[in-house]
Amino acid sequence: MAKRSKTQSQITATEASQISESPSNSSKIPFRARKIRKLSSKTPSDDDETSINENSPQQKLQSSSSLPQTLTEPLSSQCEINLALNHLRSSDPLLATLIDSHRPPHFDSDRSPFQSLAKSILYQQLAYNAAKSIYTRFVSLCGGESSVVPDSVILLSAQQLRQIGVSGRKASYLHDLAEKYKNGTLSDSSILEMDDEALLAKLTVVKGIGVWSVHMFMIFSLRRPDVLPIGDLGVRKGVQRLYGLKELPRPLEMERLCEKWKPYSSFGSWYMWRLMEAKGVLATAIQ
């Protein structure tokens, strides 16, 4: 278990005030209205220092224990967002300092689940600007954002994708995702109705999509409120700094320390990215 540092026992108001007022492109959470659905509080476990190896058996299969109570609706209105922030303020005084020194998250995405997953694949392991450039060319190749659909993606050859900077491996990932939509394994509607556990199991079957990618998809695209990406290095470093830990917390320690955030762990994670940006460490979530 990680030990507390005497010199880093808490985050000060001065440190919190250094946090950027505007979420960066690398960690802004886009939300949009969805239907109410029942969610699971289960989150996967990962002992790796980073979350780059998305296809390892450990990344695909590990999951953590759940608590009996879960939030049953996505964050889709300012009222719900305020409720989440008030809960975090009251349950975690250290996190309250961050919340009170930063504007609430801004949610503004309108991509479909398929579009978000395709984008996630293209952005993996790339610098933000490089990934953004490739994604822009990919959208153009498909015929526009609205044409990023399984039927159009599956028709793109590996050669066409290579010409816009997509590696052969990622081309195979995109084709596998499109094929699973075509054969009925996945659909936008089924994704929206799945609970967290079922969604994790379904999406990690897709080539190139691992536990970390699913966590980011749940937070940023589906606006699921109670996701704690315990394998994300930025979130782990944020927790380390927030609670003044001498060592980087391991997954079980993360779950214990962040249990008080439930049922709004996604927001707590968002503020960990903000905290690390203030220290010059970019968040790992890519939008």
From TrEMBL:
<dbReference type="GO" id="GO:0032131">
    <property type="term" value="F:alkylated DNA binding"/>
</dbReference>
<dbReference type="InterPro" id="IPR003265">
    <property type="entry name" value="HhH-GPD_domain"/>
</dbReference>
<feature type="compositionally biased region" description="Low complexity">
    <location>
        <begin position="56"/>
        <end position="70"/>
    </location>
</feature>
<keyword id="KW-0234">DNA repair</keyword>
<dbReference type="GO" id="GO:0008725">
    <property type="term" value="F:DNA-3-methyladenine glycosylase activity"/>
</dbReference>
<keyword id="KW-0227">DNA damage</keyword>
<feature type="region of interest" description="Disordered">
    <location>
        <begin position="1"/>
        <end position="70"/>
    </location>
</feature>
<dbReference type="InterPro" id="IPR051912">
    <property type="entry name" value="Alkylbase_DNA_Glycosylase/TA"/>
</dbReference>
<dbReference type="GO" id="GO:0006307">
    <property type="term" value="P:DNA alkylation repair"/>
</dbReference>
<dbReference type="GO" id="GO:0043916">
    <property type="term" value="F:DNA-7-methylguanine glycosylase activity"/>
</dbReference>
<feature type="compositionally biased region" description="Basic residues">
    <location>
        <begin position="31"/>
        <end position="40"/>
    </location>
</feature>
<comment type="similarity">
    <text>Belongs to the alkylbase DNA glycosidase AlkA family.</text>
</comment>
<dbReference type="GO" id="GO:0006285">
    <property type="term" value="P:base-excision repair, AP site formation"/>
</dbReference>
<protein>
    <submittedName>
        <fullName>DNA-3-methyladenine glycosylase 1</fullName>
    </submittedName>
</protein>
<feature type="compositionally biased region" description="Polar residues">
    <location>
        <begin position="7"/>
        <end position="28"/>
    </location>
</feature>
<dbReference type="GO" id="GO:0005634">
    <property type="term" value="C:nucleus"/>
</dbReference>
<feature type="domain" description="HhH-GPD">
    <location>
        <begin position="122"/>
        <end position="277"/>
    </location>
</feature>
<dbReference type="Pfam" id="PF00730">
    <property type="entry name" value="HhH-GPD"/>
</dbReference>
<dbReference type="GO" id="GO:0032993">
    <property type="term" value="C:protein-DNA complex"/>
</dbReference>
<dbReference type="InterPro" id="IPR011257">
    <property type="entry name" value="DNA_glycosylase"/>
</dbReference>
